[in-house]
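stuck on this one:
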Amino acid sequence: MMASIQKSIYNCDKIVLHVNLLSHLVSTHSVIMDFPPLSSKSFDEENLLHSKRSGLKILKNLAVLCISTLLLFTAYDALTMLQSTMNRKGGIGVISQATLYACFCISAILLPKLIIGKFGSKRTAVLGMFCYVPYIAYNYYPHLSLMIPSSFIAGLAGPWLWASYGVYLNGISVLYSDYLESKKEETTAKSKLIEKGKTVAVYDKIPKPEYQVSNVTKDSEDKYYEIEGTSTPPSCEYAKVIACNESSETISGSDKHSKKSHQKIKKDTAIEKSHLRTHNSQITKEKNYQKSNENIFSRYTEDNESNILIPSKGIILLASTTANFFGFHGMAHLTSHIWSSLLSYYILKTDIIREEFSNSSCYCGAHFCNVASDCFEYNAGGPSLNTRYFLTTTCVCVSLFSILIAAVFLDPLEQEKEFYFSFINMKATYEILKRKEMLFLVPLSIHSGLVQAFYVGDFNKSYVACAWGTYHVGLVALCYGIVCGISSVLSGWIVRHVGRRPVFTTAAIVNAISFAYLLVWTPHSNSPKMFFFAAGLWGIHVGIIWSQLRALYGVFFKSDEEAAFSAFHMWAAVGMCVSFGYSNFFCTSIKIYVMLAVSVLGFTGYFIAEATHCKK
């Protein structure tokens, strides 16, 4: 009789134990999000279908961003490449460019973080693209009263545009690396389940937590398999693996056993609440899908043993994904030189009646010193009014089409930032300039602006237009754009396999060869292949630096990416402003020596910054 009563009491305690455990789990997870009903679909149907859609959506947004960037800068570069020749009267072309990049520097310090925080990366990008249209349109009538104000507007908008590009690329890089990691872990989890014969239940649209809690009993074992990293989009899936032992041991217990069980529940409740507090705090800090630059760890618990932290490969995957995405976007931006060059070449060619060039009295190449001569005026003559109007109209239409594509097809990042005006936001770019890695990267960032401005303002005028004619500027720039795009995309692939240092070392070597070649080469219209060779060398260097230096900023300063990208473009704009500013006052050889000195400082600073970052 007593045995029967004890057994009944034990069964009641057992029921209470499981009810408390169940209610505890439900109340705990309801803090984050209510569970939707269990899906009746299989693991493959539910997870793989969602994974494919998520991956394709991310790649679609990358493609839209690249296409809109390509079209905008096709229109912009078609006229920018000709500023030093088509608008050389009174120095209007280079003065407007210098004004644009001077405003770029001021805006980069104060505005991008503020604007992106207010409008988000997509709206900021569309607004910035629209601000380039007046500068393109005012080439109908290039006068200082029109070109300077339009340069001012484009210069202010430039940092918003490029910072929003960087933030958006960083965001989708994080999402895509999460997607790749989830595919890998889903495959691994599925194979383990098939081996052990476990049942899989899929919960739809539950955010993946930062932690993992295991409540292990003799009757059941619950584990959560999550992707390493931070929060993911609300559309992700979350698999809960339940292993049920069909033959559970018969337990003979008493009140003592019941007390121990209740103590265990109380202890587990405290542990899980602690984890929840940590998780909710982490969501608040990183709700914009930003990942910490520190090592990521995965945690597991087995048979009530102590938790063990295992280093993850998530950082490596994220770095390679970021390099690839920035490489593709860099390719889109730099290959705009191809289409802008073709556009300007075939339109300007309609003005040419005879292809005769005079080189007898011209000092072209490194010896060019902005001295007017009959030879230069003959070779570098500007287009007719009809040709100017046709070229400008075409560029305006292409730029408006690029804005339409971005506004309609680009998805905003699913993030909501609480905006408030604060001088702390405006000082963010200034504060990040004090960081050690940033100080070491400043010379190379300035150098990236110097080399691009030199090609636009000096190479086209001193080498191509002077010796071979203005309308060949577009043809030579075609080669430059192709090589820029190829080197940009290949550099991202190489970084993924061998790391950043070999890529930047290659860029430094090519850079030195380019400077040496431009110093000793005397351009002549009888040897046109040499123009393409020089442009190709320059394109290799620019393609690597422009894409991978931006990706490097995204990796080094991920905790404050808006300010970091603004700082990069500010220093690049300083280089461009200086180059355009002294373009009409020094000989080409002096400009090459200045770039050589800055590049030596820049690459030295990069290797020091890389070593400093690795030590952390």
